[in-house]
Every structure is written in C-alpha cells, then in structure tokens.
Amino acid sequence: MEPVVQSKSFICAYCGERNDTFVDPAQGRNHTYIEDCQVCCRPNQLHIHFDEWNKSYQIRAEMSR
Description:
This protein is mainly β. It has no helices and 5 strands.
C-alpha cells in the first residue's frame, strides 16, 4: 500500500495564523523543512513527526533562523 499525502495545518510562529499544508509520508516519519506563512509570508521551520498513538502526523512550527 502506498503512503498517502495528508492534509494538515500549523500555526505560524510569527503571526499566529493557521496555515494549511500537506505532509508527504514518503519523506519519512520525522523530517524538517521551511514553509512560508500564507498570511504574513515569513518562513516557518516545520518539524513533522508521526504520532504512533494517534496514527497521524503532528506539525510544530518555529521561527526560521
């Protein structure tokens, strides 16, 4: 069975607005990448983690360095 891309959201570390994004399981259960906020356009470093208990991905955003 192929991994399925999941629609998720994160809260911008700068402006606090909710952003929608997609998590690609082919990238692994834990990975990090930069995505700009859809509202304020500032770069968020997104930490993606697969939660085994809930069987879903969790996203934590922090200000990009």
